[in-house]
Amino acid sequence: MTGRHLARCALWLAIGPLAAQADLAALVEQLGSAEPAARSRAYNALLRQQGPELVTLLGARIATFPVEGQQYAIYLLRQQPIDTTRDLYVRLLAAERNFLRAAAAAQLVRHGDTKHAPLLARAVAAAVPAERQFVLNTLWGLEDGDLAAAVRGYLQPDAPAPLVVSALTHLRQIERARTAATTAAVQPLAAAPAVGVRAAALAWLAGGDDGAAPAKALAELLREQPELFWSVDALFEADRKYPAVLIEAFAAALARPRSKYEVARLAARLRTQAPELAAGVLRDLLAGGAADLRGAALEALATLPGGLDQKELQRLLRADAPDLQVVAAATLRRLDDPSGLPVLLELAAKPGQHRAEAVEALGGFRSRAAVETLFSALDDGELLVRQRAWTALHGVLNGLFPYRRFDFPKCGYDPDGPSRQAGIAQLRAWWATVK
Amino acid sequence: MARKRGLGPVWYRAAMRGLATLAFLVALPAFAQGPPAAASVTEPGRTLLRPLDIVLAGRSAEATERTLLVVVDPAAALATAGFADAFANALQQNRATLARTRLGLGIVGQKACVVVPPTTDHPKVLDALRAGLRTPAGEFQNVYADLRAAAAAFAGSDGDRVLLLVTLENGDVEDDVEQTAALLHRARVRVEVLTSEATLADSYWAARPYQDRPRGTNLTGSDGAVIDLPWGWLFQIGSANESTPAGFATWGLTRLAAATGGRVFLHSTASQVQHQCNTPFARCLFCSGDHLPPDDHWNNALVDQLGPLACSRADTFQALGDDPYFRLTVEAWRSAAEAGLLHSQPAVRVTGTSATPDRARPGRDLDLTESASFERQARRAEEAAGKAQQLGDQLEAQIAKVPAGAGSPRQQAAARYTRVLLQLTRVNLLYFAAWCRETAPGLFDKDTPLPVVPEVPTVERADRPVGIGYTNLSLCHGVRPFFAVELPGGTRLHPELQKLDAQFTAYLARYGKSQFGFALRRNSIAQFWPTFPGVAGKLPRVRPKTANDQAPPITPRRPPREGGASTGGTGPTTGGGR
Q1: Cβ contacts (< 8 Å) between B294 and chain A: which residues?
Q2: Are the C-beta atoms of B506 and B419 separated by less than 8 Å?
Q3: Burial B354-387 (b: 16+ CB within 10 A, else e)
Q4: What's the pLDDT band for B274 if we cut at 50, 70, 90?
Q5: Count of alpha carbons within 13 Å of B199, Cβ hemisphere only?
Q6: What is the pLDDT of residue B77?
Q7: Is domain B35-224+240-309+430-533+564-578 in CATH 3.40.50.410, yes or no?
Q8: Is the pLDDT higher at A389 or at A16?
Q9: What is the radius of gyration, based on Cα positions, of chain A?
Q10: How far apart are the CA of A431 and the nearest CA of chain B, in angstroms?
Q11: With 0-12 CB in 10 A as exposed, 13-18 as middle and 19+ as buried, what is A275?
């Protein structure tokens, strides 16, 4: 090594940390950007950073950020040990913006400094409308009467519907049981001009004492505007038995789904409330719905007590409809019946839209027979198939070899990478040593 | 005038003989049926509406003189389930038959229990019920003591006397069940119970004798008066007896209903019915939480047949003492515990033809995991595996000798379960020995070649291990899927796994759609790994007392159950399967 090399090394050792520090500062600065994508990129880049430097930099700049950037900064501070952030939180208790005061107080209360609870309630109550959604996001895991009263203040007829839904969701967590005070605060919202707010209030009231009338009103609203269901879905409680009129409205929405995700979600809601009703609607979808809805209906039917029997699934497995065959094979596997495996191996190799689903379903089988097919799918022309095959392979190998430890990225395969052959060859080489 | 004994008018003697014959004929079926079973008092269904409707409507289609005291144990789950609304609904629907019913309300945990003495002002009772449910209680509550106190509310009341006890959580806090039953029986009070499902032969509190409880009570929780299914098997983290829904209520509550001519209604919340292979202590290799076990829908007739007795604890012991299967189970359980295959011993002593309660003793500790002397541990495990085989074969032979029709179906299921668990424990011991001999030394051998990527070494530490740890791989999907899994000992141990599969499959073919089949699936194949010395962390500084310190509650709070399906505080559930 020449003297010049040594000098370069020394320079690098000297300026390396400084350069890293400068990068960190630039990323923190970007959190305050007015552009949402830049803020999001900076946040993702900072997520893995640990250490007092980040806390110092965030502390120095957080007050100047817009509230969206401040929220990111608070999320990042939560990743740090409380010993390194406590002083900053204490400093933020005197911040100008209510969001920062609330977020800092919430974090301190969460770590046992309960004397800040009154300040937290005051900051929550004083938050301006533009801050309120962000303030609610800081309140998870806290239970306090004054805090509930402050959140109740957000329940205004002219508030945005998502804020009302979020406030009610938080109130359920803060208060644990329904209180008369919250019910009284919600009742006026049932006549609010905004239909979203009205729906949220009715959804809340439908689950309480004397829920029949609000349930009826909500059912009428849902019949007119089925999409409202998705904005208030979070307010329905899993263990609550709802009036029949509302259940029928859910079933009506299930009969006209816009996507397969809606089928799964509504069926899950109805599974506990009225499984027979749900089964009837799902059978209709299975018989006459669009291709992707039929698969979702079949999956949902399988989760209902008595929804599908093995004989029916075996018949669907032999049907000339790859999408249904895939779901039938996956459902049979869930019933401890592996007879769909050969069908899936065949379908995964066959061209068609169903391949990604077939490969994903193959990942549910802990079978050595699936491994070679999954290796082949790793080099499929379609990115989605490659991604599903990669995920499926992890599940299969971890299941088949519980005493071995894998570090899959080490083999250099990336489903989205330009060259995949080396990674696949590495996997095959490993497979040859164990199969 | 004195009358000579046994003498009297001819018509009188003839009438007495007739009465005696009649009494004998009436009593004969009762003797032939044997002791009362929980199945005879447990109603089907899991909803709130049906039991309220049945109890409030009464036994007559017309309004009759009646006193109905509703005693509610205000758990959070009861409020969430909409009990107050369901009650209001039932009041409305049955207002005609309730016209002459005096309705009262008791809240468990309140002084003297009764908060609204029986009255015809039904809305007042409903208002008090709603108020009572607004402040859910989280403490252990002695419902039996409160029922004794509440019995006074029936004094002087005419007509039918009914007490509806609604308790989802505290049936397991037992004090004197028989005294409570006798007092209520004397007061002519019929006890109807609405409660949550118990755990099959629940051993949860037996495994945690240190738990604080209200003075004068015992924590039990089993569906039967006695824990009649061996628990604490070697290498099983968390016992199947702690998470298997029984299909019945806790014994104490069932007993109250049976002794007073009442019924038991079970309630479960909607979110409890979702199946989960994974427990906090066992992971499933074969699914990601989407398993739909084919045995999920239970066979009601089978569940009833395998239900516990509803007689007193003393009578239960007497009945069990006569049961050949129970005697075999207890004998095998004790021998297995002495061999270190279980860490519990039966709290029952079987002598001659009777069974008596015994002090609960721990089983022998084989000390297999406390040191990393792999060879020595492997030898010990193989010895214990031999003993498991011997006990299993012996139990199987003895079961085969029991004459047909002898013993109860429940005790037969328990004996056969014990047989399968002995083989499972043998398999786990053999895997343990194979891991100690073949896998573990290689983990620390510097000459072991590095695995081919993407596999990486399992252990990346230079220091020596200090012991052996284990986790559990759930048997929820059965034994057969494990044939494809790479386990210590390789294919050499497959015959033992196949033997287990045969026993497992045969057991499920017979008991799969019942509580006993469910219990079998809650067991696991063990997975082993070396343990290392812990790194001592900095202990937190003991701070002086501050205003933030909370005084401990006088009545101990009920801690959430670890590992079972009852974290919601309302017990496990078959999901309305019966």
Answers
A1: 310, 335-337
A2: no
A3: ebeeeeeeebeebebbeebebeebbebbbebbeb
A4: low
A5: 30
A6: 81
A7: yes
A8: A389
A9: 27
A10: 9
A11: middle
Could you tell me which of B506, B577, B578 has the C-alpha nearest to residue B275? B577
The CB density around residue A110, as the number of other CB atoms within 10 Å, is 18
Tokens 């938080």 identify what position? A170
What is the DSSP track for B259-298?
Answer: HHT--EEE---GGGG---S-BTTEE-SS-SS----TT-S-
C-beta atoms of A334 and B79 within 8 A: no
What is d(CA B48, CA B267) in angstroms, rounded to the nearest whole number? 6
How many angstroms separate the CA atoms of B303 and B185, rounded? 28
What residues of chain B lie within 8 A of the CB of A241, using their CB? 47-48, 81-82, 86, 270
CB nearest to B82's CB, from A241, A404, A430: A241
Residues of A in contact with B81 (CB under 8 A): 239-241
Phi/psi for A192 (5° steps) reads -65, 150
CA distance A75 to A55: 12
Averaged confidence pLDDT in chain B: 86
Tell whether B287 lies on the interface with A, counting CB pairs under 8 A: yes
Q: What are phi and psi of B299, to 5 degrees?
A: -95, 110
Residue-wise burial string across B121-149, b where 16 or more C-beta atoms lie within 10 A, e elsewhere: ebeebbebbbebbeebbbbbbbbbbbbbe
A346 contacts A375 by C-beta, under 8 angstroms:
no
Q: Considering only CA atoms, which of B146, B159, B145, B63 is closest in space to residue B105?
A: B146
Out of B271, B296, B297, the one facing A272 most closely (by C-beta) is B271
- Does residue B110 have a pLDDT over 60? yes
- How far apart are alpha carbons A182 and A141 in whole angstroms? 19
Mean pLDDT lowest among A141-150, A210-219, B11-20, B246-255: B11-20
CB spacing of A306 vs B287 below 8 angstroms: no
Separation of alpha carbons A184 and A180, rounded Å: 6
* Confidence (pLDDT) at A39: 93
d(C-alpha B547, C-alpha B552), whole Å: 14
The residue of chain B nearest to residue A239, with distances taken between CA atoms, is B270
**Angstrom distance (rounded) from CA A133 to CA A390:** 38
B373/B452 Cα distance (integer angstroms): 28
pTM of the model: 0.77
Least confident of A344-353, B272-281, B288-297: B272-281
ipTM of this predicted complex? 0.82
* Cα three-residue angle B389-B395-B399, rounded to 5 degrees: 145
Name the minimum distance, in Å, from the CA of B318 to any CA of chain A: 40
d(C-alpha A345, C-alpha B313), whole Å: 58
Half-sphere exposure (Cβ direction) of A366: Cα atoms closer than 13 Å: 22
Reported as a pLDDT band with limits 50, 70 and 90, residue B573 is low
Question: Which of B134, B270, B288 lies nearest to residue A272, judging by beta carbons?
Answer: B270
Share of chain B above pLDDT 90, in %: 62
At A159, give phi and psi (nearest 5°). Answer: -75, 155
Beta strands B173-174 and B218-219 are: antiparallel
Share of residues in chain A with pLDDT > 70 (%): 93
Element spanning B104, H or E:
strand B101-107
CA atoms within 13 A on the CB side of A396: 24
Contacts of A51 (CB under 8 A, 6+ apart): A80
Residue B241, pLDDT > 80, answer yes
Tokens 């069940």 — which residue? B177
Dihedral, CA of residue B494, residue B495, residue B497 and residue B500, to nearest 10? 170
Kindly give the pairing relationship between strand B264-266 and strand B190-195: parallel
